């Protein structure tokens, strides 16, 4: 099995080669660098029209991204029993895996995605990662994710305990990520995901956002998690937040302040280019965890271009009423000092509306999470 580090390098090399490769026409007229990628266009059209319809980086994009991580992280460099990575096991064995505490509310993603997986012939693992990549392209600020096709679907579930939990300490989280092949820098990069989305406090409920801009892939998340928390729900993996309407995970709060990760975290504040490029690389690596990329085909050219985030929108700011004096800085490197404060009175961030398609038979304890999928072999 290839190491994940090698996989990442190979993915990036493959992607850059693809840009120079001659393109061929699919029967439907779309141009691709490999005809195997033509199979993705009907899937793309279906999910663009029906799954992400009217989704401006909202619930469908958030849910498809989270499940892509929870599927991929079922993998270990040392424990073969931890699963085979980005292998679709989270849906193929949903009745088991969705009963794990860490997978609470992944049922939303199952209800959303299962009908589409059943209607198309690509494998479950490929669908999960493809939907996440396409969902990301709804989010202003994301760089177009690469996509490789050809994952081998799981033959067994991942066990409980592979997905980090919000109440765990930094040592435990970093150890789990390292065991899956990810460095602290890659974890901090991947957590840009929490710049979009939030927590669902009840089944099929609206989400409490992690930051004040949950539909923009911007650096506000890294800034706002560093503000002194004074408000909101505490317990069960949540700590006080600084902005009404948002929820801060204990794990994000600790990682932002721990000396092993605080400078990596702080470096993203008001640095959109760093956030976007480091996430793009770490996400490409995450998408192929446990898979042999030599057997996969580069279909990056099928992924649409995400909307551009303007320079003005990429400017980080302190929420109304807050300033540099509210930052709890652990990293000894200089903090960006010239950030503006958004004018006006303190705001309450509205909840993230629930996508009705996330409601369905699959329950949060894993019951009734069954569907007939065509699996790849
Ligand atoms: C230390 C590692 C991590 C922990 C402890 C963690 C924990 C959580 C928790 C507790 C939620 C709320 C789920 C809910 O109850 O609705 C959440 C949401 C989310 N997570 Fe993570 N996460 C981690 C890393 C990641 C990574 C690496 C990704 C993607 C690459 C990711 C993507 C997301 C997304 C997109 C959401 C929002 C889902 C939605 O709004 O529907 N997370 N995470």
Automatic annotation (TrEMBL):
Residues annotated as binding Ca(2+) 2: 195, 211, 213, 218
Main location: secreted
Stored Pfam families: peroxidase (PF00141), Peroxidase_ext (PF11895)
GO molecular function, one term: metal ion binding
Entry annotated with the keyword rRNA processing: no
Sequence positions that bind heme b: 194
Marked site positions, Transition state stabilizer: 66
SUPFAM superfamilies: Heme-dependent peroxidases
Annotated positions binding Ca(2+) 1: 71, 85, 87, 89
UniProt key word Manganese: no
Cofactor note: Binds 1 heme b (iron(II)-protoporphyrin IX) group per subunit. Binds 2 calcium ions per subunit.
Cellular component aspect of the GO annotation: extracellular region
Catalytic site: 70 (proton acceptor)
Plant heme peroxidase family profile domain span: 112-331
Enzyme Commission number, as recorded: 1.11.1.-
Keywords from the UniProt entry: Calcium, Disulfide bond, Glycoprotein, Heme, Hydrogen peroxide, Iron, Metal-binding, Oxidoreductase, Peroxidase, Secreted, Signal
GO biological process: one example: response to reactive oxygen species
Region described as Disordered: spans on this chain: 344-377
Stretch forming the signal peptide: 1-18
Compartment list: Secreted
Protein family according to the UniProt entry: Belongs to the peroxidase family. Ligninase subfamily.
PANTHER family attached to this UniProt entry: CATALASE-PEROXIDASE, THYLAKOID LUMENAL 29 KDA PROTEIN, CHLOROPLASTIC-RELATED
Listed name of the protein: Peroxidase
